[in-house]
Design goal:
single chain; alpha/beta; Glycerol-3-phosphate (1)-acyltransferase; seven-stranded mixed sheet; 9 helices; 7 strands; globular; membrane; transmembrane helix
Length: about 250
C-alpha cells in the first residue's frame, strides 16, 4: 500500500503544484508553440519516470533502436494496465499524442496537460465524434506529431496477456490515410504492477518490445484490408515469445 499512496501523492501533488507551470506554458505557447510542446513533453516524461521508480518496476526493453526518431509514427500496443501509458510515453523520442477515452477529458488539470501533449479524446459511442477525433489524429501525423493508440478499445481484463481483444480496424485509418510507419508494441506482465492485486502496487518485472515498423503500403492487398488483424497477430506472436522472460 505504501507504493500506492506514494504514487497517489505524487500525481495529485504534481497536478496541484503544476498550475503555475500550466499558465507559463500557455504563455510560452502563444509565442513559441514548439518550445512549449517540447518542454511539456520532457516535464511529463520526467514525472512519469519518477512514478515508475516509485513502483519499483523493472523493465526489459527490446527493439527500441527500431523506433524512428526523424518522422511521425503510429504506435499500436496491447493494453492491460494504467501503467502502459507511463511505460511507453517515457520512451517517446519525439512529440506524441495519445488517444484516450473521452471520460479522461472530464478530469481537471490532467486533461489540461493531455491537451498540451496533443492527446485526443475518443468517444467510441458517438460515431460522428469518433470520426472527428480520428481525422484530427491524421492531421497530427501529417504535421509531424506521432500518435499512440491501444486498438483493443479498453483495458484488457482477461486472465492472460495472450488473450488479446479484437483490434478496432478504424484505429488504423491514422496510418492508412497517411502511410506513416506503424510501430507495434508488445507489453508482457504490466497487469501485475497494479491491477492484478488492486489497490496494491507490486514491484514487478515487465517486458516491452518494439516490433519492426511497417507502412500500410508495404502490405499485401489482403493484409492491408485487415490491417488491425495483421498487427494484432504480430503483437500476439511477440507476447508469446517474451512470456518466459517475466
Amino acid at each position: 500500500m505504501i507504493r500506492f499512496l506514494l504514487v497517489c501523492i505524487t500525481v495529485i501533488g504534481f497536478l496541484i503544484l503544476s498550475i503555475p507551470i500550466l499558465i507559463v506554458e500557455w504563455i510560452i505557447g502563444k509565442f513559441k508553440p514548439y518550445t512549449k510542446d517540447i518542454s511539456s513533453l520532457r516535464l511529463i516524461q520526467a514525472v512519469f519516470r519518477f512514478i515508475l521508480w516509485l513502483t519499483g518496476v523493472e523493465v526489459t526493453v527490446i527493439g527500441e533502436e527500431l523506433v524512428p526518431k526523424d518522422e511521425a509514427v503510429l504506435y499500436i500496443g496491447n493494453h492491460r494496465s494504467f501503467f502502459d501509458i507511463l511505460l511507453t510515453y517515457t520512451r517517446c523520442p519525439r512529440l506524441t499524442g495519445y488517444i484516450a477515452k473521452t471520460e479522461m477529458e472530464k478530469i481537471p488539470l490532467l486533461s489540461n496537460w493531455m491537451r498540451y501533449l496533443h492527446c485526443l479524446f475518443l468517444d467510441r459511442k458517438d460515431i460522428k465524434k469518433g470520426l472527428k477525433t480520428i481525422l484530427t489524429g491524421i492531421d497530427l501525423i501529417k504535421s509531424g506529431i506521432s500518435v499512440c493508440i491501444f486498438p483493443e478499445g479498453t483495458r484488457n481484463r482477461n486472465e492472460s496477456d495472450l488473450d488479446l481483444l479484437d483490434f478496432h480496424e478504424g484505429s488504423f485509418r491514422l496510418a492508412t490515410k497517411t502511410d506513416c510507419l506503424i510501430v507495434p508494441i508488445a507489453m508482457n506482465n504490466t497487469v501485475s504492477i497494479f491491477e492484478k492485486q488492486f489497490p496494491k502496487i507490486r514491484k514487478t518485472h515487465v517486458v516491452l518490445e518494439y516490433g519492426k515498423p511497417f507502412r500500410p503500403s508495404e502490405l499485401s492487398k489482403e493484409d492491408k484490408k485487415h490491417i488491425g488483424e495483421y498487427t494484432r497477430a504480430q503483437i500476439l506472436e511477440t507476447l508469446k515469445k517474451n512470456e518466459p522472460l517475466v
